[in-house]
Structure formats: structure tokens, C-alpha cells
Amino acid sequence: MRTVWMAVLATLIAAAGGASVPIRGPAFDFAEAREGPRHTLYLSFDADMTPGMLKRLQAGKVASWYDPAIVQYLRDNEIPAVIFASGLFAETYPDLIERLARDPLFAIGVHGYRHAAFTANCYGLPFLHTDAERLDDLTHARDTIARITGRAPTLFRYPGLCRDAHDDALVRQAGLTVDTATVVAGDSFNHDVDAIVRQVIRQARDGGTVIFHLGGPNAPVTLEALKRVVPELRKQGYEFARK
Ligand SMILES: [Zn+2]
User: Fold this and answer.
1) What number does CATH give the domain 38-241?
2) Ligand 1 centroid vs 2 CA: distance in angstroms?
3) HSE, side-chain direction, 13 A CA sphere, residue 187
4) CA of 133 to the centre of ligand 1 (A)
């Protein structure tokens, strides 16, 4: 309204023979005024599985490498997300991955076949030495996810987020798109809920992507962190969307 009155005033000044001053105000967005500012955030959950993790599971040393309560929380609160599953994870939990893929709330992305890094010195992960090995891991992971979900995956996330400049071309060659995250929740092997919550809130920006993990012993307090982060972000005007 202020803009309108200023325009009227300018017209009156001009009509009275005074100097005409161009009045420029920001376009007023009535929809935004009604609903408050809205920002979009994309949540994602990495579901890791290395051959070593699989061995520990099979030996009964670990009960589960994911937390079903996280999936339930996302469903109960209608929070869309992409689950980046390594091929070995999908093979270990095919029913879960198939169910998630069928749920319109979720999409399944590719997170390598055996969660091997694309570069050396990536958090101690074993790494793929040659481009042939990298491409083989990519296509094997892609085909595993496609077989289990019944649809071709489109998104890829590097294990450990480690990449060399030319790796994106290999990912494209496998028909996948690299998904980059802007907010690393830091929930792997972390018991500090406060630190995770602070980090996500501090780094959240409109259009950003957050990386969490799907729980289990390698992400012990992800659910607790989510239960605090989600209401806080919603209070700040964030809406969650799926890629
Ligand atoms: Zn990972």
C-alpha cells in the first residue's frame, strides 16, 4: 500500500508543477505477506554398506545398519527425502528399499556399490584405483538399485563426498547426476545431538540439501537430532521438498 500512496503523491507533485521524482518500491508479494516467507530445503539420508559392515552384520556383531524409526518419523511428519543407498545396502535390505521406492515421499539415489571412495585419502575408505573400476562400481550400483526398485535411479552421491575433477564425467557416463549437499549434518559416528542441530540450523539456506545418515551404529543420534531440527526449521519458514 505504501508504494501506491507514494505513487499518488508523486503524481500530485507532478500535477502541481513540482519536480517529478521517479518512485520505485519493491514489488509487493501479497501471497508472501499472507503466508510468511517460505524456503525450501531438501533432506537426504545416506545408507552406507561396506563389505566390512556387511560382515559385522552377518556375524551378529551389529543388529542393523539403519534405524526404522527414522523412516517412520519421516512418514509421520510427511517429510520427503532422497535415500542414497549403496548397492550392498540395497541387496542387504531389499524389502526396505523397494518399499521406500514405492512411497511417493521418497526417491532412491545411488551411493556407490560397496561404498568405496573415488579418491585416495577419503576418511580411510578403501578406494577405486582406476576409471574402469570407478565406472564398474557406478554401473553395478545403478543396476542393483534399478533391479530392486523397478525403476532407473537418477541421482548419485559420492561415498565420503570425495571426488576428483574428472569423476563427474564418469557419473554422467553411467546416466546419473551428481547430487551435491550444502549442509553436512555431521551425524556419522557423532553422539553430540546439540552439535548436529546447531550445524544444520546454521548452514540451512533456501534451496539447500542436507546430508544425514539412515541411523544404526554409524549414526547413533540422527533421530534425536531430526526431532529437534525439523520443528525448528519449519518454524523458520522452511518447507521440505524432494528432488
Ligand atoms: Zn556414505
Assistant:
1) 3.20.20.370
2) 52
3) 29
4) 18
The rounded Cα 15 to chain-centroid distance in angstroms is 57
Q: Which residue is associated with the grid cell 501471497?
A: 31
Q: Across the strands, what pairs with 157?
A: none
Long-range contacts of 216-219 (CB under 8 A, 24+ apart): 216/62, 216/64, 216/65, 216/66, 216/67, 217/62, 217/65, 218/48, 218/53, 218/65, 218/188, 218/189, 219/67, 219/187, 219/188, 219/189, 219/190
List where CATH 3.20.20.370 sits in the chain. Answer: 38-241
Residue pair 151/100 in contact by the 8 Å Cβ criterion: no
Q: 95 CA distance to ligand 1 centroid (A)?
A: 20
Strands of the chain (E only): list them: 39-47, 81-85, 106-110, 155-156, 177-178, 183-184, 208-213, 238-241
Distance 198 CA to ligand 1 centre (A): 21
User: Which grid cell sits at 157?
Assistant: 552421491
| Cα dihedral sign, 240-83-116-64 | positive
pLDDT of amino acid 11: 41
Residues in the chain: 243
What confidence tens digit (pLDDT) does each residue in 195-236 have?
Answer: 999 999 999 999 999 999 999 999 999 999 999 999 999 999
CA distance 108 to 82: 6
Chain mean pLDDT for the chain: 89
